[in-house]
Structure formats: structure tokens, C-alpha cells
């Protein structure tokens, strides 16, 4: 994804539109999780997926809205809590 973003000016129109829609969908999910992040992960520095990992590590404490948003992007499944996604 970082590579695609770095070369966005070289992408076809169709690919750029798909990338944009993908980004907007994830932005909506992360907006739903902002309160959870502030509550559960306030000391976690941003970047390199640390915030997402913190949310996943605290899956059992997530609000229904955040849990649903993460499940909608298949980042969290209803039966998985606290899974280490770096492995």
C-alpha cells in the first residue's frame, strides 16, 4: 500500500480510484475507533501499525462501533480477541 501511495501519480485512473475508495473506507473505520484508541492506546506512538495492533490486542474492550468497523474490514473476526497480527 505504501508503494502505491508513493507512486499515485503513475497509477491508472481506475487503480487510483480504487486506492482512493479503499483509503476512504479505512478512514471511516478508524474514525469509529478514535474514542477507543484514546481510551485504550493513548500511550502508543503512531505509525507502523502500532495503533491498530493496540486496538486488536484490546479487542475484548472495544466499543461495538469500533469492533464492527474492524470486523467490516476483516481486521477482526467475532471469535478472535487479542490475536497478534504481526505473526
Provide the fold topology.
Elements: H1 2-6, H2 13-40, H3 50-57, H4 64-72
Short synopsis of the structure:
With 87 residues, this protein is mainly alpha-helical. It has helices at residues 2-6, 13-40, 50-57, 64-72. The chain has one domain (12-72).
Q: Care to describe what's here?
A:
The longest helix is centred in the first third of the chain and has 28 residues, at 13-40. This protein has one domain. It has four helices and no strands. The protein has helices spanning 2-6, 13-40, 50-57, 64-72. Helices cover 57% and strands 0% of the residues. Helix 2 runs antiparallel to helix 4 (64-72). The two termini are 19 Å apart. It is mostly helical and 87 residues long.
Keywords:
single chain; 87 residues; mainly alpha; 4 helices; elongated; disordered C terminus
Looking at the structure, what is the overall shape? elongated
Overall pLDDT confidence: 79
Number of helices: 4
Helix content: 55-70%
Rg, Cα atoms, Å: 14 Å
Low-confidence spans: pLDDT under 50, at least 5 residues? 81-87
Distance between the termini: 19 Å
Structural class: mainly alpha
Order of helices and strands: HHHH
Reported for the largest beta sheet, the result is: none
Strand content: under 5%
The total tally of domains equals 1
Number of DSSP strand runs: 0
